[in-house]
Amino acid sequence: MRILLWHGYLLGGTGSNVYSRALAREWSLAGHDVTVVCQERHPELYDLGGARVVRPDVGPYLPVFVLDRYEGIEARRLHELGRADIQRFVDANVAALRELLPADLVFANHVLLGGPVAAAVGAPFAVKAHGSELEYSLRGRPDLAAWGRESLRAARAVYVGSAHIREVLEEVCGPLDRPERVHEVPPGVDVDEFRPEPRPQALAALVAEARSDPPNPGNANERLPDEGNAERLAAFLAGDRPTVLYFGKLIHNKGVHLLLEALRGLDARAVIVGFGDHRRELEALAAALGEDVLFTGPLEHRHLRHLVPLCDVSVVPSIFPEAFGMVAAEAAAGGACPLVARHSGLAEVAAGVAEEYPPHRSHLAAFESGSVADLRARLGELLALTPAERLELQAAARRAVVARWSWAGIARRLLELAVVV
User: Fold this and answer.
1) CATH number of domain containing 375
2) pLDDT tens digits for 21-31?
3) Does residue 19 lie within any of the structural domains?
4) pLDDT band for position 60 (50/70/90)?
5) C-alpha distances out from residue 335 to 245, 332, 398, 421, Å
6) CA dihedral angle for residue 37, residue 39, residue 44, residue 48, rounded to 10 degrees
7) Which end of the chain is more exposed for a tag (fewer CB within 10 A), N or C?
8) What is the mean pLDDT of the chain?
9) What pLDDT score was predicted for residue 36?
10) What is the total count of domains within the chain?
């Protein structure tokens, strides 16, 4: 098939970015002709399996759902932009996609603005709904919700990552025509990239990757790893103290503050990976834990594949609904026990992992959302396990991911559903 994959943003750093590049890679490796239309300025940094990348000139503004800084363009919240600016962005992307026709399928991310872009191209299209646009921009804004619903009318398929996001889509946008076209297909995990690794090898490889990071004096660029990470990680992860990991955005809704509060009184160290406007506040909160917390800035998969096997538990403490617990599934594949807040798409990941756990350990996959006390209790139980007991859980968590969420199967399933009319 000739596939045009539209993603209005970058190819690294956040869930939908990783989702897009993973699909491009899997479809390309499966023999499809794939072109990615996005705003990534450095596609050479990513393995796309041979997919081509096109970056259209969309004007001065990038409509986003959560504010970040982007190279060469000003990000503004979708719901705060005027309709003329939004339409300019849509028109520029439609023109870029039409230049690439013919295509068997246009696959677009995000109900807005992926839906309007794909619908206007004039080729068969499918849309992947993510939680970000639904929760941060469409909810409570009837005009945007109606536009999103209308743009999906002619889609061959609409994908949601979980039952939770199906409910949110209908709640925010209203009932869709032909609901049988809405398919639950979770995101995938590269189970070959994320896999357990012997500790000495993992630490050496992590440090080597950190040494290859570009300079970031004074950590001025929040999208780059912190300066000096190689030495800092080598020192911090020396020895075999119990280690807890968080990786994701450093914004309030991700609940990292709950994790830092829960760590008080536990004999553990924590690595906090990511960027966002909450970082300084989190660093101040972590000061009470002394030298037991290390902030690294954002890391890519090339780092994380080696960092995860060095950690005993990976916590996803979000206090806001999540479409799917991608980071929890990646951590489980890599050999860290996932511990997630029990809500939305995270609860579905926890349920899948818990099914593989021994019955008397199944409660250790999730904690009560927003509860520091319950998070501390579950963390304490996990960290108190013997090495053999923890290895048993880690192996079970990986089995769950391999069986349910490997990328090759997910990518194939998406195309199968899109070609059935």
Assistant:
1) 3.40.50.2000
2) 999 999 999 99
3) yes
4) very high
5) 12, 5, 7, 40
6) -40
7) C
8) 95
9) 98
10) 2
Tell me the Ramachandran region of residue 104: left when phi exceeds 0, alpha when psi lies from -120 to 50, beta otherwise: alpha
157-160/182-184 β-pairing = parallel
Q: How far apart are CA 263 and CA 258, in angstroms?
A: 9
Q: Is the peptide bond before 113 cis (omega within 30 degrees of 0)?
A: yes
pLDDT for 125 equals 98
Tell me the per-residue pLDDT of 377-392, one tens digit each, with 9 for 90 and over.
Answer: 999 999 999 999 999 9
What are residue 339's DSSP bridge partners? 315
In a domain, 194, yes or no: no
What pLDDT sits at residue 345?
Answer: 86
- Is residue 193 included in any domain, yes or no? no
Residues 217 and 74 grouped into a single domain: no
Q: Which residues of 276-306 are buried (b: 16+ CB within 10 A; e: fewer)?
A: bebbeebeebbeebeebbbbbbbbebbbbbb
pLDDT higher than 80, residue 323: no
pLDDT of residue 325: 84
For residues 132 and 62, state if they share a domain.
yes
Asked whether residue 163 falls in the same domain as residue 254, the answer is no
HSE-CB for 286 with a 13 A CA cutoff: 18
What letter would DSSP give residue 223? T
pLDDT for the residue 420: 61
Residue 13 binned pLDDT confidence (cut-offs 50, 70, 90): confident
Q: What is the C-alpha to C-alpha distance for residues 49 and 321, in angstroms, rounded to an integer?
A: 32
Q: What's the rounded Cα separation, in Å, for the pair 48 and 31?
A: 12
Host domain of residue 51: 2-188+407-418
Q: What is the DSSP string of 72-91?
A: TBEEEEGGGS-HHHHHHHHH
